[in-house]
């Protein structure tokens, strides 16, 4: 029998867990309770506890502090985290602390017992020899999900050998006759923007949240396993397995799960997705060709028809593919003009090319990726000085269709590779060109003093974006310290102070419009969290936004 400790300051939640937990069938003898992390640590010293369920928001010692406290003292203690979708800071610590599961409030009976079952399975496996094969359903220290991910990846890329790996097939249900398999692929169109604005730049945190949403939206008749593709940074894959009995409904179930997941990702995080749903198959090795077809459908997405909303491809589209447009000669001319100081002509050429593409029958997503990668590659090649024009390399992430040399030249950077419609795609290309031209002009300017008002003008115009001093340092090839000192000498504010001032001045102006909600104003100012905006406003003006609005009346 195992012992469980529930740590939560809300008695109704502790009581709900006690009621819905299937304690007897799980082999759990005693269930202890504590109202905060400090009391929880005291109970750990007094009783042999195997699993701890800990809420993240508590008085005295919260969930983060508790997880950090037990990491070294109780390294084998299993933990299940309880919290909400927006507690991303807590989620980061949960990942670092290798928790068994992460439950979202309100607690669901099925999810609770699944998490407890996972913990009990780990405890049971520890009683056995660690040398026993994983096919016997040993899930030790969260290694099973990673192994399943590697298995699925080897199937998708065609390297899986059935005869040599037959013992692993039970792990993914491929040994059961009658099982059917399907694949869902998500291309995150605004991945970097969401990562920076909603997940504080944490890629692992965002990946965890996305796969968690997919798990929450899975149909109970489908067993779905989701993971970010390790070699394609904007791609998330979900492999779905259906037991015999519902074969005729599997295409519909896959489409419903995909639609629900896409809707939830947009509602929770503002994600815009191009999704593809594969045709069900009876042999799991057929997933390789299905996966290839699904990616082809996603790559065929017409960028000209993107409107900032997600798209879903359920079946192959029939008809002739659009005739490809050759842009190589045009890009070479753009590179030459930009390099020789003909900035306006380079911009006109790029604009003309974008207009030509827009007037065509279609412009596929894979072609958009390829052209962005090629332009970036040419601009990088034109930089003659070692280390020059770093801002260009930081402005675009690696496109999936880029060549080896292009991939080598592309650094993972900010949101400039995001685009959710054709207009935004054009803006990204123009921004890339402008950054390169700015580098050329600065290099040609020699020792001329830098005009710090350029940074002020940028802040005045783009105050709602995530403004970083490193962006200006890379764009103008000057040190952070020099820029900060120069800006303060000129305007009497630090750069971050000035950004705050512009936002707060704008906040006052917007609060004067009674038709705007506080949340809307927060979004317009670049604060993705209304509570954070309210706290910033109060710190700046000593009154909350609501109190200030009342004072105006």
UniProtKB/TrEMBL annotation:
<dbReference type="InterPro" id="IPR009057">
    <property type="entry name" value="Homeodomain-like_sf"/>
</dbReference>
<protein>
    <submittedName>
        <fullName>Chemotaxis protein CheY</fullName>
    </submittedName>
</protein>
<dbReference type="GO" id="GO:0003700">
    <property type="term" value="F:DNA-binding transcription factor activity"/>
</dbReference>
<keyword id="KW-0238">DNA-binding</keyword>
<keyword id="KW-0804">Transcription</keyword>
<keyword id="KW-0597">Phosphoprotein</keyword>
<dbReference type="InterPro" id="IPR011006">
    <property type="entry name" value="CheY-like_superfamily"/>
</dbReference>
<dbReference type="Pfam" id="PF12833">
    <property type="entry name" value="HTH_18"/>
</dbReference>
<dbReference type="InterPro" id="IPR001789">
    <property type="entry name" value="Sig_transdc_resp-reg_receiver"/>
</dbReference>
<keyword id="KW-0805">Transcription regulation</keyword>
<feature type="domain" description="Response regulatory">
    <location>
        <begin position="3"/>
        <end position="120"/>
    </location>
</feature>
<feature type="domain" description="HTH araC/xylS-type">
    <location>
        <begin position="453"/>
        <end position="551"/>
    </location>
</feature>
<dbReference type="GO" id="GO:0000160">
    <property type="term" value="P:phosphorelay signal transduction system"/>
</dbReference>
<keyword id="KW-0902">Two-component regulatory system</keyword>
<dbReference type="Pfam" id="PF00072">
    <property type="entry name" value="Response_reg"/>
</dbReference>
<feature type="modified residue" description="4-aspartylphosphate">
    <location>
        <position position="55"/>
    </location>
</feature>
<dbReference type="GO" id="GO:0005737">
    <property type="term" value="C:cytoplasm"/>
</dbReference>
<dbReference type="GO" id="GO:0043565">
    <property type="term" value="F:sequence-specific DNA binding"/>
</dbReference>
<dbReference type="InterPro" id="IPR051552">
    <property type="entry name" value="HptR"/>
</dbReference>
<dbReference type="InterPro" id="IPR020449">
    <property type="entry name" value="Tscrpt_reg_AraC-type_HTH"/>
</dbReference>
<dbReference type="InterPro" id="IPR018062">
    <property type="entry name" value="HTH_AraC-typ_CS"/>
</dbReference>
<dbReference type="InterPro" id="IPR018060">
    <property type="entry name" value="HTH_AraC"/>
</dbReference>
<keyword id="KW-0963">Cytoplasm</keyword>
